[in-house]
Sequence to fold (315 residues):
Amino acid sequence: MAEIGKDILFARQLLENGDLVAIPTETVYGLAGNALSATSVAKIFSTKNRPQFDPLIVHVPSLEKAKDYVSEIPDLAKALTEKFWPGPLTLLLKKKNIIPDLVTSGLDTVGIRCPDHSLTRDLLALLDFPLAAPSANPFGYVSPTEPSHVNEQLGEKIKYILDGGVCPVGIESTIVGFENGKPVVYRLGGLSVEDIESVVGKVQVQTHSTSNPKAPGQLKSHYAPTKKVVLGKIDQLIDAHSSKRIGILSFQKDFGLPNQIILSPAGSVEEAAQHLFSALRAFDKLPVDVVLAELIPEQGLGRAINDRLRRAASE
Ligand code: TXA
Ligand code: MG
Fold:
């Protein structure tokens, strides 16, 4: 198993040696390596079993540093960074040559973000390279939101997990790119569409793509737990699954049944986002055959939560 601790100097040493370190962010834990080293980046893909056509996000300590890696920052992108960085927003921007093609799977844009977690910000400030970091889970599975999640799945393959506790946002960053200068949301995430629109006006949301996705995070079945998830009205689903061992994943309501997880008894979408992935992981260990789940109100982070629930439920 990996060592878990808060030693950013040890993390720096490993990263400078070309090793990988799991890092906390406000969204989910990342599997980080030197983004400027093709060898470290190749290790990220192999450790996660991730296909090389799925590009990685590059993490920087500031907008100033981002300028070393991207060739142009549209005004609207700049406005978004001023308001939301550090924070759960990834921007797709034209990359400079210093970013290896392996990072971007050959695309001419790089996903770049400035994470909002003090430990990882302190680490980034110590490094003279940015960190490529996908979520620290095997490809296709639910993202990790605490160190034990990372250790259970990747602990045999990495040496160190930087312990930043439970991720406060709990759902991956929102990805925004630009088409003919217009902002497009490619992945719903920890920054709400409403918040983005408050800065740049109406945006297009294009999170479902067909056979050749620009971002495989858009694949219909992704972020999926092992147990089957069925979405609908929970009371009706309970009747329809009476012959099975059921788990219940509700937003707010207590159904008074065993193997039930309530995402937010107080009805807060932020709290529900924080608990979503650990709940999906928990069901994988509970004695249930099927998880009956409901969508939550399509507002704020509710949209991103519903996106993940639909993907988790997709065959
Ligand atoms: O919150 C997050 O974004 C976390 C933390 C660790 O920062 N990272 C994360 O990375 O979720 P990952 O690799 O699990 O998901 C990144 C998504 C992928 O679906 C990838 O295809 C997409 O971003 N992506 C990255 N670069 C891209 C690019 N240049 N064009 C289109 N999609 C891109
Ligand atoms: Mg991921």
In short: The chain has two domains: 3-205, 228-312. The chain has eleven helices and 15 strands. Residues 3-205 form a domain with the DHBP synthase fold (CATH 3.90.870.10).
